Amino acid sequence: MVAALAVPLVLPFYVDAFWLRIGLFAMAAAVGALGLTILFGAAGQLSLGHAFFVAVGTYGYGFLAGDDHGQVKGLGLPPLLAAVLAILFAGLCGLLFSPVASRLRGIYLGIASLGLVFLGHHLLLNLPAVTGGYDGRSVEPFALGGFTFSDVSDRLVLGIPFGAVESLWYLFLAVTVVATLVARNVLRGRPGRAFRLMRDSEVGAAAMGVRVQRAKAGAFVLSSMYAGTAGVLTALAFQRAVPDYFDLQLSIDFLAMIILGGLGSTSGALVGATFVIALPIVLSRYADVLPLVVAPGQEGIQASFAATFVYGVLVVIVMLTQPGGLRAMVHSLRDRRSTAH
């Protein structure tokens, strides 16, 4: 446990900025995956609209914290206040959709939530004053207590230049740890037991005193706020928001994360998010030495397509051989080892 806590704290002093940036993207996705773990893994509510709520968090922060730049407008609020309001706005959008979520389940809810992605993409392209349209909009750097998380040439810590990536690493790490602890406490407490009862049998849950519609709405709102938090982190990691990123593929990626890691598992969501986010970036970086994979712009199998194919095949294998995901696989290996000893 000490090593698990100490290693992330010292990584910015020893690891190249490329790997730290992958870590930022992975932690942002992990927070969103934790929200989907609560909604789908625990409560059994299939959602294909997760990308919509991530977009709400991203553009909400960009609009609230940004200033006016030509036709693109902003309110210029303090970054911390803008981040909190963006997360709350994502939760409000989830609350507005909760009457639909409370009355549907399974593939029907998935199809209904899918409409949010197309609606959101349409709004992102046709509200240029808020979103910047097709070109997107820049994102103001985060600031807390007079400290700005940006590249400063003279900022040194123990002789190591500390720019935006290194500074954001600790911010993202703190948010991810808090989000993980909250999700774990929710799943282990009374709400988590109510969600699992509802997932297994709505009639049985109602017989045990669970108010099913309220529980469904609560799970959807909490998941939306997690997605909004992931959106704020995504905005800070990319330092720009573009509409094409928040499409159906992003929602499918989130589903792949929690299925690979293990439905209902917080640690599985973290591992699955890291794998799904890091794989295409690593393949693209080492495309010149990998067989069959080519760099962007060349003829052949693109790194992004190869990564999608790899974790798509892994999802099928996991569902056929180990439905509990990587978490169940680790527990199975641990039990075998203890039995052998």
UniProtKB/TrEMBL annotation:
CDD domains, A to Z: TM_PBP1_LivM_like
Pfam families, per database record: BPD_transp_2 (PF02653)
Membrane-related topology note: Multi-pass membrane protein
UniProt keywords, alphabetically: Cell membrane, Membrane, Transmembrane, Transmembrane helix
Transmembrane regions: 18-39, 46-64, 76-97, 106-125, 168-187, 217-238, 258-283, 303-321
Top-level lineage group: Bacteria
InterPro entries in alphabetical order: ABC_transp_permease, LivM-like
GO molecular function: branched-chain amino acid transmembrane transporter activity
Record-level GO cellular component terms: plasma membrane
Subcellular location: Cell membrane
Ranges in coiled-coil conformation: none
Name this polypeptide is given: Branched-chain amino acid ABC transporter permease
Source species taxonomy: Bacteria, Bacillati, Actinomycetota, Actinomycetes, Streptosporangiales
